[in-house]
Each structure stands twice: as C-alpha cells, then as structure tokens.
Amino acid sequence: MTDVIDGNAVAQGIRDDLRASIDQLEAEDVTPTLATVLMSDDPASETYVSMKQDDCEEVGIEAIDVEIDSDAPAEELFETIDELNADENVDGILVQMPVPEHVDKRAVLEVIDPEKDVDGFHPENVGRLVAGNARYKPCTPHGIQKLLATAGVDTEGKDAVVVGRSDIVGKPMANLFMQKADGGNATVTVCHSRTENLAEKTRDADIVVAAAGVPEMIDGSMLSEGVVVIDVGINRVDADTEKGYELIGDVEYDSAKDKASAITPVPGGVGPMTRAMLLYNTVKAAGRQSGVDIELP
Ligand SMILES: NC(=O)C1=CN([C@@H]2O[C@H](COP(=O)(O)OP(=O)(O)OC[C@H]3O[C@@H](n4cnc5c(N)ncnc54)[C@H](OP(=O)(O)O)[C@@H]3O)[C@@H](O)[C@H]2O)C=CC1
Ligand SMILES: Nc1nc(=O)c2c([nH]1)NC[C@@H]1CN(c3ccc(C(=O)N[C@@H](CCC(=O)O)C(=O)O)cc3)C=[N+]21
C-alpha cells in the first residue's frame, strides 16, 4: 500500500504546535508579526498571499498586508522594504516572487534585513544554510524535511534526486539533503533542463523531489518500485471547474503512485507545508528579535 502523505494534516499539526511558542511570546507582550508584500497582478500570487494571511490569523500571528501596483517604480518597493526593516514591530518580511521584470530581484533579496528574511533567501542566510548553520531554512525544502520525518522516511544513506535547481526550491533542498544532520545524510543528484537521461537518474533514486514546474513530467516508468515521491510542482491548467482551473503537479500521480511506497498529492502535499514553515520562521524571528527564549516545535 502506498502511503499518501497528507500535507494538510502535517501542516495543521505544526500550526497547532506553534501556538505554545506564540503563547510564550505573548506572555512577554510580544505579538509575532509578518509583513507580506505583493507587487503582482498574478492571480496565483494573490491566492498564495491571501492564504498566508489566513494562516497567520489562525495561529495568532499579526499579518501586515502591503500591496504595490505592479507598474509602480521599483523605488516604491525598496522604500516599503526600508520602512518594514525599520519597524520594530515587524518580525518577518516576505516579498512574494516573482516581482515584475522592471524590479531587480537580487537587489530586493539583498535589502531585506537578514533577521527578518523569513524566506531565507538573503545571501547571508543562503550562506549560513550552505555552511550548515542555517538561521531560517527556506520554507519549501524545510517543509519537505518535516513531511519526510513525519512519514517515517529516513534520508540517511538514501539516493535523493532533486529535479530543479531554483534558488527557492531545488538548490536549498539539495543542500539540506546533503547536510550532516537529521533530514540529511543523503547522496544527492540535482537535475535540471540540461540533464541528459533524466529517467536513468530518477530510476536510481530512493527519493525523488520534483520541482521543475512542468506538468506531469515524471511518470511511473521513470521510477523504481518503493520510491518516495515528493511533488512540489503547482501548475494551473484550464479546466471546467468552479475556479476555471485545476492544479496539476510535476508528477503523473496515478502511474507514480503504483510504484511509490509514499507520495505527496497536489494539492494538499508540499504547498500547505511551505505555508506552515513560513509561520514557523516568523515565530522564530520574533523570538530572536525580542530576545524572548522560546521553544520551537
Ligand atoms: N508547493 C510549493 O510550496 C511550491 C511550489 N512551487 C512550484 O514548484 C515548481 C518549481 O518552482 P521553482 O523552483 O520556483 O521553478 P523555477 O522555474 O525557478 O525552476 C525550475 C527548475 O526546473 C528545471 N527544469 C525545467 N524544465 C525541466 C525539464 N524538462 N527537465 C528537468 N528540469 C527542468 C529548470 O532547469 P534550468 O535551471 O536549466 O532552467 C529549473 O532549474 C513550480 O511548479 C512552482 O509553482 C514553487 C515553490 C513552492
Ligand atoms: N517570497 C516567496 N516565498 C515563497 O514561498 C513563494 C513565493 N515567493 N512565490 C511563489 C512560491 C509558491 N509558493 C506556494 C506556497 C503555497 C502553496 C499552497 O499552499 N498550495 C496549496 C493549494 C493552493 C491553491 O489552491 O492554489 C496546495 O498545494 O495544497 C503553493 C505554492 C510559495 N512561493
């Protein structure tokens, strides 16, 4: 029987556990606060940001919602970030990616105060992660580590194949898997659009993390019996549903499930975990910046 890993349930558990840490902060009159900055008209980005706001409300994190016109000058975004950096009440800042083309994405990531960088995308935080001394682990790969741990999948000694080398998913995932730490100690292969014979790599894997953004590009024929499949892909395809679209992963679910010992669905797999780990990093940030010594789940 294949274990279908329920990301919504694991994420709910993390949100519930975070309440105790938030209570510790509240006892010292600290309310953890996350500012989300949206500079985009993309409906998917709007959906994610509003879901993040709802999550904050559920657990008792204050959410500040900043929206910037997508054709406003880049300076407006930089000024907003400066203000949020300077605001002592703000613990975490998330600038929803992608930003418009006229905005220099790297410059945005570099101006966010690294202590408030709850995405973990600032070069200082990336450096710390690679050095094995992470301040804030990037939410998606951190969430995947929690999912695997909860499902009882030990990564130690396993062959892990990460498909995708983006700064937000593929690279930090590969780094976490190779670290000499719990949730790591795997032997890692990173694949991308120039990889030759992808199916040979994925067939050799004990764990496959699919994060390419290509709908259903990995099917059962590319996998070995007993593999653990983590599907990060979120692809909106037009469909005759209430919302007018359907969400499809990077994995062809039915054929992959036939081979897998465990698999994450889309939706309801990695996505909710990304959001839960954002809350986790925000609470951690509030503890660090207030000096209140909290315990984290
Ligand atoms: N569930 C969640 O919480 C999250 C989901 N996502 C989703 O995950 C997916 C990936 O996101 P993100 O990492 O930001 O994407 P990017 O577009 O930044 O990166 C995609 C990566 O996949 C590689 N790639 C593209 N096509 C292929 C192919 N045919 N074969 C092998 N590799 C390929 C690219 O290679 P190259 O480097 O050569 O271009 C690149 O490294 C998207 O569907 C996104 O929506 C993203 C973040 C969080
Ligand atoms: N600064 C920044 N940080 C991010 O973490 C970040 C980002 N920018 N830009 C875009 C990607 C994508 N991402 C998702 C988060 C949650 C779901 C999620 O909750 N998905 C639900 C369904 C969502 C729906 O219904 O549309 C699920 O899979 O069940 C998906 C994708 C975070 N990202």
From TrEMBL:
<dbReference type="GO" id="GO:0000105">
    <property type="term" value="P:L-histidine biosynthetic process"/>
</dbReference>
<dbReference type="Pfam" id="PF02882">
    <property type="entry name" value="THF_DHG_CYH_C"/>
</dbReference>
<keyword id="KW-0511">Multifunctional enzyme</keyword>
<comment type="function">
    <text>Catalyzes the oxidation of 5,10-methylenetetrahydrofolate to 5,10-methenyltetrahydrofolate and then the hydrolysis of 5,10-methenyltetrahydrofolate to 10-formyltetrahydrofolate.</text>
</comment>
<keyword id="KW-0486">Methionine biosynthesis</keyword>
<keyword id="KW-0378">Hydrolase</keyword>
<feature type="binding site">
    <location>
        <position position="234"/>
    </location>
    <ligand>
        <name>NADP(+)</name>
    </ligand>
</feature>
<keyword id="KW-0521">NADP</keyword>
<dbReference type="GO" id="GO:0004488">
    <property type="term" value="F:methylenetetrahydrofolate dehydrogenase (NADP+) activity"/>
</dbReference>
<dbReference type="GO" id="GO:0005829">
    <property type="term" value="C:cytosol"/>
</dbReference>
<dbReference type="Pfam" id="PF00763">
    <property type="entry name" value="THF_DHG_CYH"/>
</dbReference>
<dbReference type="InterPro" id="IPR020631">
    <property type="entry name" value="THF_DH/CycHdrlase_NAD-bd_dom"/>
</dbReference>
<keyword id="KW-0554">One-carbon metabolism</keyword>
<protein>
    <recommendedName>
        <fullName>Bifunctional protein FolD</fullName>
        <ecNumber>1.5.1.5</ecNumber>
        <ecNumber>3.5.4.9</ecNumber>
    </recommendedName>
</protein>
<comment type="similarity">
    <text>Belongs to the tetrahydrofolate dehydrogenase/cyclohydrolase family.</text>
</comment>
<keyword id="KW-0658">Purine biosynthesis</keyword>
<feature type="domain" description="Tetrahydrofolate dehydrogenase/cyclohydrolase NAD(P)-binding">
    <location>
        <begin position="138"/>
        <end position="289"/>
    </location>
</feature>
<dbReference type="InterPro" id="IPR046346">
    <property type="entry name" value="Aminoacid_DH-like_N_sf"/>
</dbReference>
<dbReference type="GO" id="GO:0004477">
    <property type="term" value="F:methenyltetrahydrofolate cyclohydrolase activity"/>
</dbReference>
<dbReference type="GO" id="GO:0006164">
    <property type="term" value="P:purine nucleotide biosynthetic process"/>
</dbReference>
<feature type="domain" description="Tetrahydrofolate dehydrogenase/cyclohydrolase catalytic">
    <location>
        <begin position="5"/>
        <end position="119"/>
    </location>
</feature>
<dbReference type="GO" id="GO:0009086">
    <property type="term" value="P:methionine biosynthetic process"/>
</dbReference>
<keyword id="KW-0368">Histidine biosynthesis</keyword>
<dbReference type="InterPro" id="IPR000672">
    <property type="entry name" value="THF_DH/CycHdrlase"/>
</dbReference>
<dbReference type="GO" id="GO:0035999">
    <property type="term" value="P:tetrahydrofolate interconversion"/>
</dbReference>
<comment type="subunit">
    <text>Homodimer.</text>
</comment>
<dbReference type="InterPro" id="IPR020630">
    <property type="entry name" value="THF_DH/CycHdrlase_cat_dom"/>
</dbReference>
<keyword id="KW-0028">Amino-acid biosynthesis</keyword>
<comment type="pathway">
    <text>One-carbon metabolism; tetrahydrofolate interconversion.</text>
</comment>
<feature type="binding site">
    <location>
        <begin position="164"/>
        <end position="166"/>
    </location>
    <ligand>
        <name>NADP(+)</name>
    </ligand>
</feature>
<keyword id="KW-0560">Oxidoreductase</keyword>
<dbReference type="InterPro" id="IPR036291">
    <property type="entry name" value="NAD(P)-bd_dom_sf"/>
</dbReference>
